[in-house]
Specification:
There is one protein chain. This protein is mainly α. It folds into two domains: 127 residues, Alpha Horseshoe (Serine Threonine Protein Phosphatase 5, Tetratricopeptide repeat); 74 residues, no CATH class. 72% of the residues lie in helices and 0% in strands. It is built from twelve helices and no strands. The longest helix has 17 residues.
């Protein structure tokens, strides 16, 4: 139900944007995320790529200096959607486009006034998640560890960092490392509790960690907090 509501809200925002490509692009980010949550990867990719095309066609000088953040975020959303569809070629091409854009984007300004965060680190996090969704879990974890070990990782919005940690638990679990998955969830909860306590993906991952065997005290406390154990 939350994903359905998110899709509806994003779709209405797209309609309300009218002919403004920037407003449409901002709405398309949310729309793509909602469609991915509903397992509608191809539609999500189409929505994001279409919004990028509209931004590319807009007259120069219309947008703010940090506008690459929006285009880059849309490219990342499109890449994640492509990976969800199993399209490795499209995911790779879109990620490379985002990476090229990120080299010219000052990561110190990682979030503009609309909350769009983009830079080299967000591209690397996307590489990790696309690798995971395409089944290369070892590569996903390797990229994840390198990206989260950088100073720029700590500059990203708390919700972004927590959401990524929740998402990467799938790679840890598929590699048979529930302890790493548990640590990721506990860290995510410390960064942005709402992400772990509301998102279905977090509860699903935490349930898998609990079923895998004995857990640390921190994981047990988190499970009790979210209502999975007494």
């Amino acid at each position: 139900m939350p994903s359905d509501l998110a899709w509806l809200a994003a779709d209405r925002a797209m309609s309300a944007a009218g002919g403004d490509p920037r407003r449409a692009g901002l709405a398309a980010v949310s729309l793509a995320q909602a469609l991915r949550a509903l397992r509608r990867g191809r539609l999500a990719m189409t929505a994001a790529v279409t919004a990028v095309h509209q931004l590319d066609l807009a007259p120069s000088g219309v947008f703010l200096p940090d506008e690459p953040a929006l285009t880059g975020t849309l490219l990342i959303e499109a890449a994640l959607a492509a990976a969800a569809c199993g399209s490795a070629a499209a995911a790779g091409e879109l990620t490379e486009r985002a990476a090229h854009l990120a080299t010219a984007h000052d990561e110190r300004h990682h979030s503009d006034h609309d909350g769009v965060g983009f830079g080299p680190t967000t591209v690397e996090l996307a590489r990790a998640l696309t690798a995971m969704r395409l089944g290369d879990h070892r590569q996903a974890v390797a990229i994840h560890r390198q990206a989260t070990g950088s100073e720029a990782w700590h500059l990203l919005p708390a919700e972004h960092r927590a959401a990524h940690l929740i998402d990467i638990t799938r790679a840890h679990l598929d590699l048979g490392d529930p302890h790493a998955a548990g640590r990721a969830l506990v860290t995510a909860d410390a960064i942005a509790p709402a992400e772990t306590r509301i998102r279905t993906a977090a509860r699903t991952a935490l349930t898998a960690v609990l079923r895998a065997g004995p857990t640390s005290a921190d994981v047990a406390r988190l499970a009790a907090t979210v209502g999975l154990t007494r």
